Amino acid sequence: MSEIRLAFPACVIAGKHRLGVEDIDLLRRHSFPEGVRSADDVVVMLALNNSCPEKCPEWNTYFVEQLAAFIVHYNYPQGSLDEINVAWLMRMIAADGVIHSAVELELVLHVIEISAYVPDELRAFALDQLRLALSDSRGAYHHGRAIARRGITRQDVDYIMRVLRALSDGGAITVQALTWAVLMRIGEETLPASNHPRWSQIVSALVLVDYAEAPRRTRWLRLVDSGEAAVA
Fold first, then answer.
1. How far apart are CA 146 and CA 148, in angstroms?
2. Which of 9, 12, 36, 159 is 20–30 Å from 47 (CA)?
3. pLDDT tens per residue across all 232 residues of the chain
4. Nearest to 71 by CA among 58, 62, 80
5. String of b and e for 76-93 (b: at least 16 CB within 10 Å)?
6. Helix or strand or coil: residue 106?
């Protein structure tokens, strides 16, 4: 990210202390008139998010909606995710598996919510942010917890179900191996007597399933209008 050269107006905005609504308007008009459309555009958005200490509330919405739309709807497979998009996203926003930015954590959650299919790796990655908060007191989720304790809170339950909601049907929550493993590790990091009652209900509803892994395709973030896919 340090090697990218920001063009106007991103180069000016990156040097500001506070990113305001007027800066978002400049980005809409000059940098992304058709929205975020390339991996380089994503790097610019991440650079702006990391360079400006203060941001207006509208930035979070703009950031999440633009990047989620690019990842899920503009890339192949359109409307869905695959292991290649997920690996790229995780590399872009995490350091050693930890998401440090609250808005980037929200991006992951929104991507999970709007995608027709979510690989097991991304759900496990999102849930692991809770485990890191419990075990190591690290990451954006840790800093956003209203109550910092070694037990599952109502806030944690809501977070877990936001990740798992699409997998819940008829009282059962069908999860794959990686997600199952992270949930078990979360349980190991808590004191049962301190956990919200809903946690035990979630655990009781879990059903481990084994889906056949889709063949890996040799492409790298193939775009709708980019012609032939590039090989990673």
1. 7
2. 159
3. 445 678 999 999 999 999 999 999 999 999 999 999 999 999 999 999 999 999 999 999 999 999 999 999 999 899 999 999 999 999 999 999 999 999 999 999 999 999 999 999 999 999 999 999 999 999 999 999 998 888 999 999 999 999 999 999 999 999 999 999 999 999 999 999 999 999 999 999 999 998 755 544 545 555 555 443 333 3
4. 80
5. bbeebbbebbbebbbebb
6. helix
